[in-house]
Amino acid sequence: MIERTNVKINLGLHVLRRREDGFHDLETVFLPYSGYGDILGIEPSSRTSIHIGGPCYGGWEMDSDLTMQAYRLLAAEFSLPPVEISLIKNAPVGAGLGGGSADAAFALKMLNTLFELGLGTAELETFAGRLGSDCAFFIQNRPCFARGRGEILSACPVNVDDYEIRVEIPEGESVSTREAYANIIPRERQAVALPSLSEVLKHPVSEWRNMLRNDFEQSVFPGHPAIAALKEKFYAQGAEYASMSGSGAAVFALFKK
Fold it and tell me: Is 8 one of the annotated active-site residues of the chain?
């Protein structure tokens, strides 16, 4: 079984508060984006193995890849037979696009089909949430509000079908999640009351530029001026809205079709 995965972009990303468990409560809107994607293959085999290649494979330990973690999670629960996993990494890593999370979620869905486990959407989302904060989104893989760590999902009425989405990553730029959180100031610690994401998204796209914020830009842009410059380049080209995706380094823009 072979599938082509996709990535996501964030419409707004609010860091609300730091939790007692060390994570942060967030609110964002996830949108699927098919401009980047990996190729994932899973087949029954005599022994479990994984091979990763492709232009965006960064040399990490293959056995620790999220796709293998997804297999082990279900194997422990359902005593799955061995599989051979192959992954061609075309989606950028460290870009805030969730490529690894997508691979994990697609692996769960593929294993569910391949071995006829009978898992429903809610069950798959629960397993995905154990693998990563934004993994659950890729189970249904459609626009949605995300809260909590990113795993609490609900329907999103936002429609950007009238817009072309462009995504770029400044050459050589990569931002770790640890770096992005290092200097973040959660909204509950800020003196000025800021509108909720749902309130902002009631406005037309043409008004988002000064309203719809990715809070990670305040901590990432000072150390990565090339990312900030890319956002401004999109506006100079006529974008109605531009923003960093997730914790960076990718920047996306909405252009009226």
Answer: yes
